Amino acid sequence: MKNYGDVDVLVDAQVPLPELKPKQVLIKQRAVAIDPYDVGLRAGIKGREKEPPLIAGSSAAGEIVKLGSKVTEFQLGQRVAASPHLRTYAEYVAVGQSQLALIPQNVTYQQAAACALGVQTAYQIVYDSLKLVESDRVLIHGGAGSVGFAAIQFVRQHKVADIYTTASGLGADFLRNFDNQLHVIDYRREDFSKSVPKMDKIIDTVGGESLKKSLSVLKKDGNLISTVSDNTDPRVKFFFLKSNGKKLEAVLKQVATGNFYVKIAETAPFNVINLRKFHQAKHVVGKLILNFEEKNDMF
For the Enoyl reductase (ER) domain, which residue ranges apply (predicted)? Predict the structure, then answer.
């Protein structure tokens, strides 16, 4: 990525193999997901702590081809996934062992890449931060998005009283078909703040006006977790993923056992044309995945 801006800033480049730190492994990439964070980073509206040129991308799924000198938990040839910060739009990625998750045998690289960032985020929010009880009413904004759809599934596992979500168009239709007990609100046709009861817990993946309106339907002792916006209201907590291999591994085990559904919208070969195309995609239901071709190399 040569600069921040439109998709034309995404370009092909030949770069040296990453140099491993003692507790890192080198992953030969098999699949990478296109996440909203990556799109926001490229546009210059998220994560501008490092100036271009840089390698973007936040999900890794592939096999270990080299070990750092102090790696103790993994072996050459193992199938792993992770969500490192940056540098995954590349054939090889260096990742710290604490971020790595083993991919179960019956889980594909594509499924693992799809789970690395958004699904892991939802898992940590629901299982570590939200403190759900069975009497809770929960509102999840952006239910057809990566974090939102995963959050719906994880919240459902807690057997809460009711789950409400916002979506539109094909996304709303998909959610109604996926979970017929889910209260789906088409935000283009209906103001959720005028139609839902008071909520115990809210997950906000949208921000802006949705966050403001959410506070009006949140109980006085309720909690709101936002992935996109901070707020001075004491009921609001901003969440930013701290990548954790054990948490991601727990997610992938759910995929393997059929307890979690991964929705993949489209796959394509990894190249700059497809990368630009997927960065421009709008209102997609499911993850967009780029596959790395298998070829002979130095490992």
Answer: 5-290
